[in-house]
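Shall we go through a protein fold together, starting from nothing but its sequence? Please make up or recall a protein chain and show it to me in full. Go ahead whenever you are ready, and we will take it from there.
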Amino acid sequence: MQLGFVGLGKMGGFMVQRLLGGGHEIVAYVRTAETVRKAEALGARGAHSLADLARALAPPRAVWVMVPAGDAVTQVIEDLLPHLSKGDVIIDGGNSYYKESIRRSEHLRGKGIGFMDCGTSGGVWGLKVGYCLMIGGDQETFERLEPAFRTLAPPDGYARMGAAGAGHLVKMVHNGVEYGMMQAYAEGFDILKASPYGLDLHRISHLWNQGSVVRSWLLELAESALREDPGLEKLQGYVQDSGEGRWTVLEAIERDVPAPIITLSLFERFHSRRPDSFAARLLAALRNQFGGHAVKTK
């Protein structure tokens, strides 16, 4: 099928490659001309603007947007709208907040434009193994776009979750679960590293991937990281978050669902960015004040 694609970053660029490999016709656009040329070298048709992209697509158009969540998505949609016609559809494949996706769907429906929210998981490995796609929107549009979904995903790796917003809701919680799993692995290996046995953490990660109940793709990635740098000496313990964990915690609060593991794993990410926090210094000061406990000074 023919598909416009806006955003050619790490995920977007690899998704375009996978679509081209599946025989789809891709019209690609990003503001950086050099990146567009790279997509053209792979077989995509390059566009020099959103208007150019829309002109290159035969109605009814389908435009996949793969840009950072928030204002960037809103801006692309608003800039695209003057160049679209009734019956066209926009797919947001990024990590947008699901309530924003509901709002965008309603906004576009009033203009006769379809909208699909497509939570996309797979990272930089998706080009090789495929992407897990969690999709929201109406059934008719889903079926129209299914050839693209089928190419991007591994077998049984895509599904319609429900009406607009459902795809991004499922992806949001997926990422919250990911936070908890990553934190558990991190804490477990930290305990092993602190043991008196001089354990080979890379060997253990490989062992645990052989039939253990805690085997997973995340553990395979840990094995890969520990193979390359057994002590992880090249890294700082600074862990960023991109929003989905926060939204998952907010959703749990709104729905009265206890989610202590996901919540604490999010807070641990905050903690990683404050190696010498005021709170820790105050704790040390209080222990010194009431008990005369020794403190370390700068």
About this structure: Strands lie at 2-6, 25-29, 45-46, 62-65, 89-92, 114-121, 132-136, 158-162. The two ends are 63 Å apart (CA to CA). The first strand starts at residue 2 and ends at 6. Residues 166-194 form the longest helix (29 residues).
